[in-house]
Write a structure and sequence with these properties.
2 domains, two-stranded parallel sheet, 4 strands, 45% helix, 8% strand, globular
């Protein structure tokens, strides 16, 4: 721990300093959906990857699109490129992203469907995501925070019950 009980990482990362209650003269900056479609370099990598899930599960390419906005804009945080539907996929559900339609998830429409869910995450499914995290952490400078994300259980549950369309009414 550093001065005032803060860890060394918090001490040098502007975003973590603000989140721990310290006011900064210049607030840290990051943007949700940083690896969005607005960056031409993202679109080039996305095309190279093929499908959306192919991009999520390719550590080299997922790390690249995570880092692109930080390099281009100097953000204080990188947001891990992935998708919340990786969780249902790792629980044994069929997930696909169809061009022009977005995500499609095998719905859970009854108790038997819920029983068929794996009780644990398949480590082989999420291994590429962990490798992406390692690559991004290695590439980031000491001042840049890595933000991961996941869907809250209720959000993932809603996606499972609506075949991936979280704006739809659950079945």
């Amino acid at each position: 721990m550093g001065e005032g009980g803060t860890s060394h990482a918090v001490g040098i990362k502007p975003l973590l300093r603000v989140l721990s209650g310290e006011r900064q003269a210049i607030p840290p900056v990051w943007m949700m959906r940083q690896a969005g479609r607005y960056l031409p370099e993202y679109r080039a990598v996305r095309e190279k990857a093929g499908g959306f899930l192919d991009l999520c599960f390719n550590p080299e390419l997922a790390a690249e699109v995570t880092l692109q906005p930080v390099r281009r804009f100097g953000f204080d945080a990188a947001i891990l490129f992935s998708d919340i539907l990786v969780v249902p996929l790792a629980l044994g559900r069929k997930v696909e992203f169809l061009a022009g339609e977005g995500p499609k998830l095998e719905p859970l429409s009854d108790a038997d469907g819920v029983k068929r869910l794996s009780e644990t995450i398949d480590p082989m499914v999420v291994a590429p995501v962990y490798e992406t995290v390692r690559r991004v952490r290695k590439a980031l400078d000491a001042r840049t925070t890595l933000i991961g994300f996941c869907g809250a259980p209720s959000h993932v549950d809603r996606a499972l019950g609506t075949a991936g369309d979280i704006s739809a009414k659950p079945r």
